[in-house]
């Protein structure tokens, strides 16, 4: 398996522009997570899906952020309009709830977003 | 509030020595803990996990110890190698995918 795939790996945009980050989870995984990582705040969970349905979006900072999962193999995180404080590395992770106790999340390589 | 935290933000060790990275947690209801390794420019990578009904678990060169009495978690790396240089995160599962990550400890291995 190729692991969790994210695109783009780097994104530089100007304030006010729309940004769309993409994620392909590991095939067969039924949970998908979006995280944001900054030096100041570390890793923060933004939202997660179970079987394509958003379960908890309490970590989404504000209405400028939205996430979708139209099918089991694709998710997007959109920021509109973007602001300089959104600059961070955004990670997507997926996991499989096997019914046992191991819910290990497997992370993608991340998208480094810079908003000028 | 309850949180996952690390005692040491940085750790520098000599190649070949053993490393110990510590983590404190405050939620006694957490039942599952994971250590992740994050190398520069990459996402966190699973290293080892432990369930709350265990106090020790061993992997290849790594051992995780869990002390529920004092809510303490540690990661031991035997014979540390330059490739072990990275930031290490502990994470606690508070239930239903409520994973909380610590701030991370940067491990530097000196040749």
Explain what the structure shows:
The complex is a heterodimer of chains A (116) and B (111). Helices cover 0% and strands 53% of the residues of chain A. Chain A is mainly β and 116 residues long. In chain A, strands 2, 4, 5, 6, 9, 10 and 11 form a 7-stranded mixed beta sheet that branches. Chain A is globular, with a radius of gyration of 14 Å. The model of chain A has no long low-confidence stretch (mean pLDDT 92). Helix content of chain B is 0%, strand content 54%. Chain B has strands at 4-5, 10-14, 19-25, 32-38, 45-51, 56-58, 62-67, 72-77, 86-93, 99-101, 105-110. In chain B, strands 2, 4, 5, 9, 10 and 11 form a 6-stranded mixed beta sheet that branches. Chain B is globular. The termini of chain B are far apart. The relative contact order of chain B is 0.33. The A-B interface holds A 4, 31, 33, 42-43, 45, 48, 50, 55-56, 91, 93, 95, 101-110 and B 31-32, 34, 36, 41-46, 49, 51, 89, 93, 97-99, 101-104.
Put the structure in a nutshell.
With 116 residues, chain A is an all-beta fold. Chain A has no helices and eleven strands. The chains are: A mainly beta (116), B mainly beta (111).
